[in-house]
Design a protein that fits this description.
Length: about 160
Amino acid sequence: MFKIGDYVMYSLTGVCKVTDIIKEKYFDNNEKDYYVLEPVYATTKTVIKIPVDNKKVFMRPIISKEDISDLIDEIPLKDEIWIDDERERNHQFKLMIHSGDCKQWSTLIKSIFLKKEEKKKEGKKITQEDERLMKSAEKLLNEEIATILHILPDEVPEYIQSNIS
């Protein structure tokens, strides 16, 4: 169970702060405990109420500083994942994003980035969907790392680049 003040990764919303834990009655008239979450990097004030016992949408604690170091150290060692069939690739990449796993996000980002560089040399571009998926994974990963390191999400790529072994 999370506590008030904890930072969590909530679905595709990204980093949220648990601002309260409340009891409320909704549709079935049974009182339930709810986390009150506020997305840290939202551009507008947003409040999310999610049942404490929710199993449908992933919510997990943010990773530790040590986990970030391990993640960055592993980036050069990661194999590129590329599926030529666009429909299957999109499906697999969406599963990776929805996994809530930073390692999968970094693999996806690296894979699409390398393909993008390859295509650029050929005077071509990656698909809009590949670009969108990469940006989605970057947003989630950058927000999580930024929260732990107390930097801005825009500063994360430079931080990663300067810390790759």
